[in-house]
Amino acid sequence: MWTKLPILPYFRLVGPYLKQHKSRFALLTLLLAANIVVQLTMPWLLMKYFDSLNSPEPAERFIFLFILLGVCYQILSLASDYVGEHVGWSAANKLRSRLMRHCLGQDIAFFHHYSPGELLDRVDGAVNGLAEFFYKFVVRFTNNLVLLGVTLIVLYNIHWSIGAVMTLFVAGSALVYYLLRDYALPHWVRVGETSSAFFGFIGEQLTNTEDTRSSGASGYVMRKFKALLNQWLPVHMEAGRAFSVMWMSSMLLLGLSTILTFGVSSWLWHAGLAGPGAIYMIMMYTVMLVGPIDTIRLELGALQRASANIERIRQLFEIRPSVGDPAEGGDTLPGGALSVEFSGVEFGYTPGEPVLHGIGFKLEAGESLGIVGRTGSGKTSIARLLLRLYDPQSGTVSLGGTDISRVKLSGLRERVGIVTQDVQIFKGTVRDNLTFFDPSIPDGKIVSLLTELSLDSWFEALPQGLDTQLEAGGGGLSAGEAQLLAFARVFLKDPGLIILDEASSRLDPATEEKLDRAVRKLLRGRTAILIAHRLSTLRHVDRILVMDGGRIAENDLQGALLEDPDSRYSRLLRQSLRNRTV
Ligand SMILES: Nc1ncnc2c1ncn2[C@@H]1O[C@H](COP(=O)(O)OP(=O)(O)OP(=O)(O)O)[C@@H](O)[C@H]1O
């Protein structure tokens, strides 16, 4: 039974945070000890009162003391519950923050593997389970174990016979629970797994509601939902059945303890070894003995369930991001525009399935590069490597002459700005979304940048200007407006390399034209990489890289490629012009 309790793993995981609450621990121990003393004194007071009933003046003070201790018991229970819960939750919240930071530091692949719902279930659900563990283990379980031991000692003091019988009863109960120990646990683990799958599915569907509805997949969603519910019901019923078996066994033990107490008490009475007060006290102590046994049984189940939670949290902590900060210190990128160099880069999202082959090119600081190529040719993958969302399997990527694997991730991402088609909008004001919740950026700087980007008319049309409230996921903005916001956001950061990956694909031609002029102005003095299907957006870039099947098919100055009518770029351009005139 004990080996199944996750005491060591729990303290390994949460121990460092519990240590910060030493004074609360001391207070908790004091409260629990006082509570035990109060509980043990109460039956003794009643015995004293009953024994005084035969005398001419019954000692009523014992009744008053009994009532007073009853009130003290309630207050002490409340106080120890409060302190116990407080310590458990504070420590669990620190663990939750660490887990959250750990998840946020993971690779993009991690977020593809775990759905938001599943992560929520682990970061919140499993940690909640652990918060309860402390309270249940220290306050309920340990407290009741001590109470059980002391009650037995008190019973021995009343008469060895009742002590011995009750010791046998406690040992018998422990044996029954030991034999039943593994009965309920697998059912609870299955309940946890089914709930993870269920919430994972719901989370996924809620984030994709728009696509689900527009593609008419609601029927599939409901079928899958019902299938998951159908899986859940029998698993819960099994767990409920296991619970009933445990409950019935504790009821049987309760009946048995009453029979034993009556038997021994009757013998003590007839042998003249105990008076009515003592018999009553024995009865009360026996009831007090059964209470802790039952609580221990109940808490054991909860404590065993905590193993499943600890396991799920441990698994998450064991996942290490493949992309991380350099072992020590790390280099810093130079200020100003950054040169870009790829050298012999091989990369694949899955080992053994490369999507970029032998990529090598150089872009001087302040130059602009347009990357073109068919869908799936590897353009976005190049951008992802520059931000170290992934690392190449071989070869190096350098910025400003520094291998980016030797630069701290935060330092790198401060200097590289990217705008893509998928803009993330957070719940907050337009200002928060532009500054990423950085209050140190003055409004004046934001407004002058918006004016420079020719976004002043868009900004002025917002109902409350920078204070306009936006909803998570872009509620309140059209896809094009969200893209405009992303442009402003990236230029506020003042990066040395800017990547625009199909960044203006959702803008109407007039807005795109206006923004294009502004962006060109802002790109001056910065290095820029523009990824585009519409070749017209690339007419001002210095160099062109044509990708084909993960390989560089062409890499030259735009002017040189345009001069050669047989270059791939010239052909692509002619084709796109033809398509426009058709
Ligand atoms: N997260 C991913 N996991 C696995 N494979 C991926 C992932 N992202 C892209 N790929 C694959 O890598 C290859 C290159 O994709 P990439 O997105 O770089 O192409 P692209 O040229 O930018 O395409 P598009 O023009 O459609 O944006 C494709 O075969 C694609 O299927």
From TrEMBL:
Residues 340-574 form the ABC transporter domain. It is found in: Cell membrane. One of its GO terms (molecular function) is cysteine-type peptidase activity. Residues 26-305 form the ABC transmembrane type-1 domain. GO terms for cellular component: plasma membrane. The chain crosses the membrane at residues 25-42, 62-84, 162-180, 251-271, 277-296. It comes from the Bacteria. The keyword Transferase does not apply. It is a multi-pass membrane protein. Keywords: ATP-binding, Cell membrane, Hydrolase, Membrane, Nucleotide-binding, Protease, Thiol protease, Transmembrane, Transmembrane helix, Transport. Pfam families: ABC_membrane (PF00664), ABC_tran (PF00005). This is ABC transporter ATP-binding protein.
